[in-house]
Write a structure and sequence with these properties.
By secondary structure, this protein is α/β, with parallel strands linked by helices. The protein contains five helices and seven strands.
Length: 139
């Protein structure tokens, strides 16, 4: 299970996910939140298209779903979909250090790791690269 959101770092997990899926002969399930804002919806649509093309080029079986939930209910939607698909693993990015919510209380990462379905979660730290002394994330 691979949740895709609006964070540009979210695409970084596709390399590791595709390598694991190829090794184990797994199917990858992509899920994004439902957004009503047209700009955000277009960004998510491009993220899904990128992920589907990336997996297709590598011969990885996959499907994609747009959740009925928006960003506020996305964690529960991921967990529900993971149970429906009988997912063996949920892959997320560790963005807590960049999140004000991570400092103030419960975070997306914490909620995913402690999911009620007890599905294992692989948490990947984003890779920062530099171009001319300015940080640039893999896009």
């Amino acid at each position: 299970m691979v949740p895709l959101d609006l964070q540009k770092e979210t695409k970084q997990k596709l390399k590791l996910v595709s390598d694991m899926a190829k090794y184990f002969g797994s199917k990858v399930h992509l899920i994004t939140p439902n957004e009503t804002d047209e700009f955000l919806k277009n960004t998510l649509t491009r993220n899904i298209a990128f992920a589907k093309q990336y997996l297709q080029e590598r011969g990885i079986e996959h499907d994609a779903k747009i959740s009925e939930e928006d960003g506020s209910g996305f964690v529960k939607a991921i967990q529900k979909y993971a149970v429906q698909m009988d997912a063996d693993l949920i892959t997320i990015m560790n963005l807590q250090k960049n999140s004000l919510m991570g400092i103030l209380g419960s975070s997306y990462e914490q909620d995913m790791i402690t999911n009620e379905a007890m599905i294992p979660v692989m948490c990947i730290n984003p890779i920062v690269t530099t171009v001319s002394d300015l940080p640039a994330m893999f896009q």
